[in-house]
Amino acid sequence: MTNPVLAEVVRSGFVESVHRGALVITGPEGSVRLALGDVVSPVYPRSSNKPLQAAGMLRAGLDFTGEALALACASHSGEPGHVKRVLELLEAAGLREDDLACPPDFPLHVPSMRDAAEPRRVMMNCSGKHTAMLTTCVRAGWPAAGYAAPDHPLQQAIASCVAELTGEPIAHTGVDGCGAPLFAFSLTGLARAFGRIAGASEGSSAAVASAMRAHPWLVAGTGREDTTLMSGVEGLVAKAGAEGVQAFALPDGFAVAMKLDDGAKRACAPLAVEALRYLGADVSGLEELARPIVSGGGRAVGEIRVPELR
User: Fold this and answer.
1) Distance between CA 262 and CA 62 in Å, rounded?
2) Torsions phi, psi for 40 (to 5 deg)
3) Which long-range contacts (CB under 8 A, 24 or more apart) does 267-270 make?
4) Tens digits of per-residue pLDDT, 267-302?
5) For residue 220, what are the CA distances in angstroms to 9, 131, 182, 228?
6) Residue among 165, 181, 92, 170 nearest 129 (CA)
7) 256-274 pLDDT, tens per residue?
8) What is the pLDDT of residues 94-149, one digit of tens each?
9) N or C: which end of the chain has fewer CB within 10 A?
């Protein structure tokens, strides 16, 4: 199947580039309500997996709530407030920065990156997730050594939860950019999982949704799209992933998952706004995301345009 064009990059009235991809909307019961392109073949959701992984960690004994749980779901920007909280969580569990399996990195936040003397593991955007993984091992009595290996009890517990939330078996296990296991499944499964998390009234899924909604800045950071989306739409749970992936869900359980074939993320935000509009959400505060500008000579000369969903 050739996926449809989901976005056009228009410069000076001329279509300069297009982004093909797939997008699915599922209802509260998990059924497909709208499908564009191939939404059944497995994909790597990348960091959109994190809320699912966090739910698995809670089931395995993690006791994070609020800010700490939001960081467990985060691809944070490495701003001082993010790094400070990660270090505090490590200390509380009797852990050290060197215990983290994620690689050293510079912050995603440009001003923070300029202030950083050298890359550090706690600055890496997945350090909150890795701190949660290590803390889960401490709470469950599992060895911290090798916690990122797919056959570690922690990762087995997380995989079981992911399969339950998506409603389908994990098709493939790879290695994510942070070194943790990466589970492949369909966009339909990803949307279904987000719908179950956002629509939950109790349990681990409800706790994850509550933490992300209450602390959108910790989930991403200053100027980041997930933070803007969750701050702008009441009750939304949103998490982007690398390689052009975005997933989100409303409190009523309606959910959206998308992936751009070329891995570019620039079309994800306007597509997200259009999907939210299709679902009847109030997107009046998201106009900046809805029509990103194309610049030329220091001024706006075009836009990224997405089709109306129907």
Assistant:
1) 36
2) -115, -20
3) 267/6, 267/7, 267/19, 267/21, 267/304, 267/306, 268/225, 268/240, 268/244, 269/225, 269/229, 270/7, 270/304, 270/305, 270/306
4) 999 999 999 999 999 999 999 899 999 999 999 999
5) 26, 16, 20, 9
6) 181
7) 999 999 999 999 999 999 9
8) 999 999 999 999 999 999 999 999 999 999 999 999 999 999 999 999 999 999 99
9) C
Q: Is 45 helix (H, G, I), strand (E, B) or coil?
A: coil
Give, in degrees to the nearest 5, the angle at Cα 72 between 250 and 197.
25
**Cα(159)–Cα(173) distance, integer angstroms:** 9
Question: Distance between CA 181 and CA 193 in Å, rounded?
Answer: 18
Give the position of tokens 């593991």. 121
Instruction: Look at residues 123, 129, 121 and name the one whose alpha carbon lies nearest to residue 96.
Output: 121
Query: If you average pLDDT over residues 150-171, what whole number do you get?
Result: 98
Pick from 217, 107, 144, 129: nearest CA to 176: 129
The pLDDT score that the predictor gives to residue 52 is 98
Cα distance between residue 280 and residue 295, in whole Å: 31
Q: What pairing do the DSSP bridges indicate for beta strands 255-260 and 14-26?
A: antiparallel
Helices (H), the chain: 50-59, 66-72, 80-92, 110-115, 127-140, 153-166, 187-198, 203-214, 216-219, 225-232, 268-278, 287-290
Return the amino acid letter for 92. Answer: A
The pTM of this model reads 0.97
CA distance 162 to 245: 17
* Residue 306 φ then ψ, to 5°: -120, 150
Phi, then psi, of 284 in degrees rounded to 5: -60, -25
